[in-house]
């Protein structure tokens, strides 16, 4: 049963199967929660995600750093103390 539950959890998280579909395949009755019939990853908070506003990386000129100043992102691993 652990293997079935683990595999089912992975399918729900990957948004392949709904929670109610998983429950039915495991022999349980579906629940009345409307979200249980939707494909959604339960590990992601839907209120904090806004797909209409993508995160744009800040260009170097917007950070106020000079070209000769290095950042951790531009350093080689061997140069990090």
Explain what this protein looks like in three dimensions.
- It is a single chain.
- This protein has about 80 residues and is mainly α.
- It has a domain at about 1-45.
- About 30% of the residues lie in helices and about 0% in strands.
- It has three helices and no strands.
- The protein has helices spanning about 1-15, 20-25, 60-65.
- The termini are far apart.
Features:
81 residues; mainly alpha; 3 helices; elongated
Listing every helix as H and every strand as E from the N terminus to the C terminus, the arrangement reads HHH
Q: Kindly state the mean pLDDT as a whole number?
A: 75
Note the main sheet.
none
- Beta-strand percent range: under 5%
Q: What structural category do the secondary elements indicate?
A: mainly alpha
Distance between the termini: 50 Å
The parts where pLDDT drops under 50 for at least 5 residues are none
Overall shape: elongated
Oligomer description: single chain
The percentage helix is: 25-40%
- E-strand count: 0
Please give the radius of gyration in angstroms. 22 Å
Number of helices: 3
Task: List the SSEs and their pairings.
Layout: H1 2-13, H2 19-25, H3 60-63
